[in-house]
């Protein structure tokens, strides 16, 4: 497992994974291109022998005390091996580096695996958005993490979620 910062050359592979992971509500190429180029974004890929098997993104406006996890996706054949947790840790570490105090995200109500991952890292449900995911009409579970508590826990952990740039 090798995390690295996204490059513009990664867009095609990211979009293939985006469409496979989110078949009914994938972002468009233009939306993803804009997101990857944003000064407020931080995107990483999980590159396995030159093949992207996962990606994740954070939106953290410089100087703000809150941030949003935009997306995390893992190729189906690569799931269940800790890759999602590693990507999430990289995003949270970057948020902490930027001085963020609270991290928010939305997750599909019909995705208990992702919800369990987020809860295991300290995210708490703070609300629901009815029929948020379209066209499926699936609710979003809104979750929030106190990053200061996570950072204290993470620094006590021997694992390192560093990203090679």
Measured by DSSP, the beta-strand proportion falls in 25-35%
For the secondary structure, the number of strands is: 7
Quote the average pLDDT: 91
Q: State the end-to-end CA separation.
A: 14 Å
Secondary structure elements and pairings:
Layout: E1 3-5, H1 11-21, H2 29-37, E2 41-48, E3 51-59, E4 66-74, H3 83-97, E5 102-108, H4 112-120, E6 124-133, E7 138-146, H5 147-156
Parallel strand pairs: 4-5
Antiparallel strand pairs: 1-2, 2-3, 3-4, 5-7, 6-7
Helix pairs in contact: 3-5
Describe what this molecule looks like in 3D.
This protein is of the alpha+beta class and 165 residues long. The chain has a single domain (3-156), classed as Aminopeptidase, CATH 3.40.630.30. 33% of the residues lie in helices and 33% in strands. It contains five helices and seven strands. It has helices at residues 11-21, 29-37, 83-97, 112-120, 147-156; strands spanning 3-5, 41-48, 51-59, 66-74, 102-108, 124-133, 138-146. A seven-stranded mixed sheet has the order 1-2-3-4-5-7-6, sandwiched between helices. A hairpin with a 6-residue loop joins strand 3 and strand 4 (66-74). Helix 3 crosses helix 5.
List keywords for this structure.
alpha+beta, single chain, 5 helices, Aminopeptidase, seven-stranded mixed beta sheet, about 160 residues, 7 strands, disordered C terminus
Concise account of the structure shown:
With 165 residues, the protein is α+β, with helices and mostly antiparallel strands. It is built from five helices and seven strands, in the order E-H-H-E-E-E-H-E-H-E-E-H.
